[in-house]
């Protein structure tokens, strides 16, 4: 994220790091997004070329630019959340809590490393295969686009290819870095909710003479964690809505290309298209599932606070103290969520609907294509 320029450092006119993000955004915009979007005007009416334009490069890069710009503009909030994470680590007194936080950090690290490797593998494989096909396809760019110069002559063709590769590497890593970073933040919140729930369940013991002060600290921490999650929701729900819409368009056009390859007689083209459809669809669906998983976990961990208050030994408390637990139970029923523009919450149910709709769309599209061929 520092390489891309979106790590939440200090922001200010005097800091050169504040403007580092303009370099990758400029590469993505001027080598992929703007040329391919402009090219839509010239290819309008050719459905196959439009599908190729939307499925390769354009949509992914546009979403990556949006995500990088959104994350960079919210650097102050992200730095605040990171400071909360650091404070939580310092406040972890018991060895059990420390181990739990380290386990969550290791899971986040593995998710990040796996996603970064996968996205770079996709770009590297695509570029390698297109390079090997250059003797057969001629001097055709990796991503068909319109440029205000002749890209078919030396050295403009070679320089444009280098620019497209660099832009797509920036796009792939920006796209992945934002998603994995937000996953890390949400997993940390879920872990803190789990630790807080255990403290609440042990609060009502007979030997606890400091019930009100301990409960006050738990409530304060609970409110802080909810604000933590709400900050992420408020700052990024619009970005997630556009990402979901963009992924929907990409999956549709990629599915169309895969089905078209199935009814094509060119077996080499069939293998290449199906390979990229499989690996790219897996990549997109994994990122959607990450949001659905952490969204589900965030909601369930928040509502479990109510069950922790109910399951503790509340019968050892006085009536006034027991009423305090009732208030916590009512508050915990309204748990934090991660949404796509406030329209839908990320959870397992949403992911199931996405899978079901995708399978239905593939079946209908395949039936239509095979009918047209026959």
TrEMBL record:
Q: Where is the protein found, in the record's own terms?
A: Cell membrane
Q: Which UniProt keywords apply?
A: Cell membrane, Membrane, Olfaction, Receptor, Sensory transduction, Transducer, Transmembrane, Transmembrane helix
Q: Which GO terms describe its cellular component?
A: plasma membrane
Q: How does it sit in the membrane?
A: Multi-pass membrane protein
**UniProt-listed InterPro entries:** 7tm6_olfct_rcpt
Question: GO:BP terms for this protein?
Answer: sensory perception of smell; signal transduction
What transmembrane ranges does the database entry give? 21-44, 56-75, 111-133, 153-172, 240-259, 271-294
According to its UniProt record, which protein family does this protein belong to? Belongs to the insect chemoreceptor superfamily. Heteromeric odorant receptor channel (TC 1.A.69) family.
Q: What is this protein called?
A: Odorant receptor
């Amino acid at each position: 994220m520092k390489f891309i320029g979106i790590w939440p450092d200090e922001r200010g006119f005097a800091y050169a790091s504040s403007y580092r993000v303009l370099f990758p955004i400029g590469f993505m915009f001027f080598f992929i997004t703007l040329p391919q979007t402009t090219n839509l005007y010239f290819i309008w009416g050719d459905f196959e070329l439009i599908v190729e334009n939307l499925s390769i490069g354009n949509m992914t890069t546009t979403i990556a630019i949006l995500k990088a710009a959104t994350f960079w503009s919210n650097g102050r909030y992200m730095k605040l959340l990171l400071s909360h994470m650091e404070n939580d680590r310092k406040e972890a007194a018991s060895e059990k809590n420390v181990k739990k936080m380290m386990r969550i950090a290791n899971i986040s690290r593995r998710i990040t490393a796996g996603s970064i490797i996968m996205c770079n593998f996709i770009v590297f494989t695509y570029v390698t295969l297109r390079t090997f096909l250059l003797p057969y396809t001629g001097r055709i760019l990796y991503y068909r686009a319109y440029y205000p110069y002749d890209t078919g002559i030396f050295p403009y063709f070679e320089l444009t290819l280098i620019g497209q590769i660099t832009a797509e590497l920036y796009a792939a890593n920006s796209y992945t870095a934002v998603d994995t970073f937000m996953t890390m933040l949400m997993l940390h919140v879920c872990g803190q909710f789990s630790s807080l729930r255990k403290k609440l369940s042990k609060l009502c013991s007979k030997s606890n003479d400091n019930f009100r002060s301990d409960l006050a600290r738990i409530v304060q921490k609970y409110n802080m964690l909810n604000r933590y999650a709400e900050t992420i929701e408020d700052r990024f729900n619009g970005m997630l809505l556009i990402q979901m819409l963009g992924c929907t368009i990409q999956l549709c056009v990629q599915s169309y290309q895969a089905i078209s390859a199935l009814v094509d007689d060119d077996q080499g083209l069939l293998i290449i298209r199906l390979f990229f459809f499989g690996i790219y669809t897996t990549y997109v669906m994994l990122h959607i599932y990450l949001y659905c998983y952490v969204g589900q976990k965030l909601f369930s961990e928040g509502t479990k606070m109510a069950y922790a208050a109910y399951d503790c030994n509340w019968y050892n408390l006085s009536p006034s103290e027991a009423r305090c637990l009732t208030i916590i139970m009512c508050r915990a029923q309204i748990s934090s969520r991660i949404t796509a523009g406030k329209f839908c919450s990320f959870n397992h149910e949403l992911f199931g609907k996405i899978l079901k709709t995708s399978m239905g769309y593939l079946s209908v599209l395949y039936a239509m294509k095979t009918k047209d061929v026959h």
